[in-house]
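Q: Structure tokens for this one, please.
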Amino acid sequence: MTAQAKQLVAGVEKHLGNMTQVVFTGGPFTPAQITSKLQSIVTLRNDVDAAKAATKARIAAERADAAALRTFTSALVAFVKATFGDSPEVLADFGIRPKARETLTAEAKAAAAVKREATRAARQPDGRDDESRPEGPDAAHGHLDRRW
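A: Here is the predicted structure, written as tokens:
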């Protein structure tokens, strides 16, 4: 659109510059008014392009510094928690909410116990400890462990 506006300005100056008024879109316009409106298109587009370039540069700067700033922020939060961890009011002043522990219901405790026992049974299917397994040569596959 910018290129077209520039071309229209050149055409207005060359072919309509000696006219006092041009009537279109329901109103009269002088060649200077037409040129001014077309030039505003060019100016607006140039401003938008400049703003985009500035925004792109700022985003790149933000991305470059983001990792270090996140590390810094995390370290500060850890320091504040370690220093004021037992004072929820002070943590709130820093915008840090202490983790609220959820009290488990009797059903949830029972379900956790069942799950815990199932996990233990799955890890030791024959009831033996790890100490009962052979060491040294790999007895199951019949070859020596090269680290010995």
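A few notes: The chain has four helices and two strands. Residues 2-93 form one domain.
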